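Recall that a protein's primary structure is simply its ordered list of amino acids. Everything else, from secondary elements to tertiary packing, is in principle encoded there. The following example makes that idea concrete.
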Amino acid sequence: MSVSFATRVGGIPCRCEVTHYSPEGTATLETPADPEMFEFELLDQRGRRAEWLDKFIDPDLEMDLLRQFIEAKEDYFTEPDHGE
């Protein structure tokens, strides 16, 4: 399953397609937690790879895209309330 959501990068409307996500693992006394993994590609509004947007990627943008992804993922898996 791939999740894609609308966003803006450098003020430019585009889409972020998450290619890999793995939440942080649980630590035990013997092993540390696996780090959270978040990989993505930036696409133009038609869904084509937009490599020219990569120049805007920095740690702040990555964190913002991760936040947007988590919100989009929650919306994707939340069933709509049908007034029941």
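Strands lie at 3-9, 12-22, 37-43. Residues 3-23+36-77 form a domain with the GMP Synthetase; Chain A, domain 3 fold (CATH 3.30.300.260).
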